[in-house]
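Dear Dr. L.,

I hope this message finds you well. Following up on our conversation about the binding site, I have prepared a predicted three-dimensional model of the protein together with zinc ion. For your records, I am including the exact sequence and ligand specification that went into the calculation, followed by the structure tokens. Please feel free to forward this to your student if that is useful.
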Amino acid sequence: MEFRINILGTASALPVPNRYPSAHVLSVRGRLLLIDCGEGCQLRMRQMGISPLRIESVFISHVHGDHIFGFFGLVSTMGLLGRTAPLHVYAPRSFASIVKFAVSNFGEGMKFGIEMHPVRVSAPELIFESRSIEILAFPLRHRIETYGYLVREKEPMYNVRKELIGTDSLTLAEIGALKRGCPVVREDGDVLTLERYAYKPYIPRSYAYCSDTAPFPELAEWVRGVTLLFHESTYTSELGDLAVATNHSTAADAAKCALEAGAGKLLLGHYSSRYKSTEPFLKEARSIFPETFLAKDLDIVELPLVKA
Ligand SMILES: [Zn+2]
Ligand SMILES: [Zn+2]
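The resulting structure of the complex is given below.
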């Protein structure tokens, strides 16, 4: 039951040799989800041993080149590899014409379809759901229409304490009710409480992707309690004016959001090419939110399963 983030790129508009533009591959419970696909993302996938054929869905934050230029190469490669499974694309509506362009120019012999799921939300909304996970989209504040994504595990069913099944002669119906979180009242008046008879096997894990965005008050509320918050930090506070002018965030802005949201950990990325070293981002953010980490290209971030 993995929940893993593969970092394919951490640059912003201008790539630098060791930082490719934005892309994450999220591996969650056997599904591979690509979140943004900056230029070079398929090369990074090769380096990390991720097959493009296994990507089930692509989630696009916004139609700026540093988040989408990798889509053309990826679609072409999927075609060359003989992909047949449909590719689901969740993106702002304006991405549809880019997909059309990619398919008509680079999709020769393509045997798979691209299913578009236009995203248009003004507050967090569910856009995907399986038995075990759900994905919400929410608006960010950038120069063009931009969305963040929150991927989270659903609340697990209760486990019933095995040692009590025999000793208290629990029936199948009683076990079923306890699993669903319903206490049982027996005919003799005895109550089988959840506290005594059941427990949650683990705490659901979650990951939010917030890039690109200026800081805004609602965001912390929308990602409240997230296990791992990825928040862009294009600049440090020294260049705060530039962040404001371009609708981006500083490392301090990202840290304040993580602190307010009660996030477990903060992961920074989308660094401006002006910075040769990313250490200043870490220093600035950690002074506000100590559980901050720097995303680096080719990093793998695991969210371990924690017992409830
Ligand atoms: Zn960007
Ligand atoms: Zn942008």
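In brief: The pocket of zinc ion (ligand 2) is lined by residues 62, 64, 142, 212 (CB under 6 Å).

With kind regards,
A. P.
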